Amino acid sequence: MNIINPYNGPEHRVYNRTFLNNVQVGLEFDTCKGKLADTETLNGFISEYFNIKTTDQHVPESVSRIELNDQDKQIKVIFTENSATAAVEAECYRSFTDTMLPLASRLIAYAEKVCNIKSISTISIQKKNTWKIVADNGRTIKEIYPAALRHTFNEQHIIDMASMALPDEPAFRICKEVDMNIGEGVMKAALAAEIKNNQVLYFNLDLNASAWNVGAAEAIEVLTKLNNIIYCAFHDIVSDNIITMMKEKGDINDSHIL
Amino acid sequence: MTATSYDFKIAAPERGGRWSSSKTYAVSYKSAAIFHIRTSTSIHSANYSLFLDYNKSISAKESFLDRLDKLYLDLKQDWDGYDGSPMEKGAYENTRDAINSMPAAILADWNLYPCPNGTFMLTTKKNSASINIGNTDFSYAAFLNEENQIKGISTFNHENFLTVISHISNILKHEA
After folding, report:
1. What whole-number distance in Å separates Cα of residue A86 and Cα of residue A73?
2. Which residue segment(s) compose the domain that A166 sits in?
3. Contact present, A110 and A141 (Cβ < 8 Å)
4. Which of A6, A34, B22, B82 is deepest in the core (most CB within 10 A)?
5. Please, how many CA atoms are within 13 Å of residue B88, restricted to the half-sphere of its CB?
6. Cβ pair A65:B14 closer than 8 A
7. Residues B43-80: pLDDT tens digits?
């Protein structure tokens, strides 16, 4: 499994604050038809890995999707016959190692023990970051849009978005995407500016790193490498202003590692 | 994770089981393009203090740029009573680039002034450094003591300017 990080680092560090919105880890594999109908194996897996007893719940004869949520609906895990995903909202995300790898281990265990999968077709991480800008002092969002863009992202990534003429519409979205070869995988970045109305603008940066044909035994190592690529991509795209703000302490004392 | 409890739901039988996407932008679209709104974005209240700081920092930069625009538009011939020239277009555009490229944390230490020859002057609030930006070049000087000083003239471009700002910031780190 050859995953190449095209960036030249920075080292991982702890940030006091984050613009992260949510994080998702996902596996896709060959369809394991009928495996979800094996209620004994399924119940055993859910009981062991999520501490849930399901024997007293009605299980339909044909099941193709299982969803688990934590009590605050901040964590969602979904299993199907050809995929397993775990999504975490920013509020309960601490770091990739602390929050996502334990969930990923459960997804891998599902693939191996319930679906008898040894090789995962695609393994992926998605991180979504959001910045919200509210225009003030009598200015409109369109007036501050170029400066806000340059303030948030490094010039080389937004020069086209900053210089294009904005449409004469009350709401619109400007989006650009890039795909990057990372060896036996791909890193996709999608940068969007979403103008909701005259006063509110969102910037969204979605970073998605995937690897193909990953053995179940090396999945955790691959996920760690993919996360590192996303970390580097984030630092390449956002400006020093953003990194500086993330280093500062706010009202929340929790530490966040990308 | 043992401390987290889960609700268990089994969805009605359905085909596929993949996550559906609410985004509809074109596949492999490489350049910036305009699309109508299709998604709904929200932020978490837990990050509210960060978003307040972020908006304040944009406002601070906007205030700087507003002042620049006002100086460029308002100052006519003899604006200072000593036959001072209006601000030069090239100097205005270069200064705008300079302000846009300066990190907000560094910009907070600087003031902006017009010069009678139509150029712009950035000076630190403690008057230990100044940068004068013209149509094609910029000059700079920072002095703290014999060991910590810098001066020179350079062609104005993004890279040169940021290099000088970085040098000046390093010198001013030693300032009391």
Report:
1. 12
2. 14-257
3. no
4. A6
5. 17
6. yes
7. 554 567 788 888 888 888 888 888 999 999 999 999 99
